[in-house]
């Protein structure tokens, strides 16, 4: 299921399932979005800190559900932090089914994006946060425009060097996100995989939050879930400013173990580049030519 594309002048709903937003911090973000020709509607609980570190689960999910039911809102946009997993049981997936619209997030937003796709079949979008509009880079906005506004993103447009760690070609449905969230969610009711499909797994992590040993543990959880049997290729995004040979070696071993193409790039994640990947869209990953083509 594909939501309607975003048009200039449309309303973007801003919520915060994973961190406490501040009026001062979000004033710049909202101004940045409005400067690109869109209207902004803030969630009723956007600035609440009921628990001190977050609003309550019901408050955070309530904002998402209200935005999903609001015919005026065309894109629901939210960032990362910690806490998105807590809200999954409170999301009204039936409202989303009846009112399919665009969802865009990254990092901790992984859990919500995958849950919505699992429960509704709606394609969601991984790779950007409202915070990126505070100091919007050309590549980031071009990705936003090509996927959500013009909808002419037929090939993955790179802004970094790719490292082919296991050459090959794989085709499948795109799934993934932040490694910690993906590992925690897999095989729960909120990340159920179709065993009749093959998947292109995209992942990213960040050295400030996870050591290579931690990332390796998350990958081991994913492997032990049985999911890798259905993976036909892996693309890993930005991890650090300085290339981590330890991480590259871990990803090489993953590719060799499952005999699938694997590549690393700096095009998405917590670095300077914020490419978008459609969760649930089909793609062909070619690590012989360091490219990816979107099929949906």
From TrEMBL:
The keyword RNA-binding does not apply. Residues 12-127 form the LD-carboxypeptidase N-terminal domain. Pfam families: Peptidase_S66 (PF02016), Peptidase_S66C (PF17676). Signal peptide: none annotated. This is LD-carboxypeptidase. Belongs to the peptidase S66 family. Keywords: Hydrolase. InterPro entries: Carboxypeptidase_A_C_sf, Class_I_gatase-like, LdcA_N, Peptidase_S66_N, Peptidase_S66C, S66_fam. Coiled coil: none annotated. SUPFAM superfamilies: Class I glutamine amidotransferase-like, LD-carboxypeptidase A C-terminal domain-like. It comes from Kineothrix sedimenti. The keyword Hydrolase applies. Residues 171-285 form the LD-carboxypeptidase C-terminal domain.
